[in-house]
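Hi R.,

Here's the chain you asked about this morning:
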Amino acid sequence: MLLGGSVALVVALGLPAVALALPTGETWGAELAIAGGDDENVALVNGAVRLVDPSTATRRSTGVLMLAPRRPAAATNAVTADLTADLPPGTAVGVDVRGIRSDGTWSDWVAAGDTAAGPPAVLPETTNEVQVRLRLLGGPGLVSPAVLRLWLATSVSRTAPSAAAPSPIPPTTTPPRTTPPAAPTTTPPTASAPPVGSTVVSTMVPIVPTERPGPATSTSATAPASELLWSADVTAQGLGRFKDTPHNIVGGKGEKPTVGVVDASGSPGRKAVRMTMPAGGTRAEVEPNVANLLEGQDRFFRLSVRLAPGFPTDPRTWQAITQWKNDGTGSPPLEIRVEDGAFVLGGGFGHPGGPKTFRLPIGAAPVNRVVDLMVHVRFSRDPAQGVVDVWTGGQQVITAFHPPGGTLYPGGTGSMFSYWKIGIYRDSEIVDPAGLEVSDARVGTSARSVTASRP
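And here is the predicted structure, written out as tokens:
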């Protein structure tokens, strides 16, 4: 469904009644990042998603932004979307959702309905993973809709399935806005979340689409924005760019592990994510809000970490600070551990065909000092194709390593993927408390996209 006018759009997506007993209630702000791939004719300009190529006298300009798939903390049977956008006369934005079916394939796209009129849109079955797309329609006079913010939440519903979303985007029939636009603003939206279902009206005026950026050259000092897929940006966003996954805080004998935002040590004016682990604790982790990691993908990961004073760097048992976790249970294909006073690349113990472990030292793991780690992974179940490279402090220390079990595990139909987790994950027998500070984390398709200077 497409809506015009300067409005906040609220839509609900329900699933069959079979899942009514499932846990509910996860809310997150969608990362409106332009990552290429399936995105079409959209750009992020002054904090808003807009069309790149304008409409002409004979053609309405359209664009599509595909958001990264999301795995909620529990299976869900409904999703609510709260969209804030400026829609000049003749423009519109559509919101669609789909879910992973039980056979591992995506369902058809379902057009989100307006909660003020008609039943909610409904997916065909309960799902453990959802994906949202935005469809933008330009108006006459070179104007574009401007999508500012999108909040999503899981809930429950037992409404009958809805019809699939239309494609391509049809022209809007919504009457144009009758009130004049307010003065222009270039202030990006704040990171605080409006309550789902609230009404927020933007103050942006019609936007003339920007020119399509040209290809990057070898002399470019910085990477194109499309190469940087995700950045924690803790100073501005806090934990807003991580998934809400309370199951990643586990254990502790009396005292519980914690995850929070603090002033970054030794970096005035900057923030960091701090994980604390008491004796007997198991997990204090966060999960970046990025798409699952799939066969054939090349990704670069940047992580700036500081082990707090007293961190047990020689625990005599397993202790990870980041892992590229396989779908399902068991030890991951790839992880970085702290042991024997060093950062160590390891993994493979949980391979479905039996342990295929490895251990490669990365470098010393000092306490109370920031260490920059960069990891390049080509994800593949084939050990001949799966590759890992590692840098620390700007120096490459592991080159073209092929893990014996691959960089992905083989699994069930349509569900073979990994995802990135950051934080302390360790044996509950470790009695020493630990603290880990993460001041920077990024994911990109090139080394330069994750190593460029921070803003």
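One quick note: The chain has two domains: 2-155, 225-451.

Cheers,
M.
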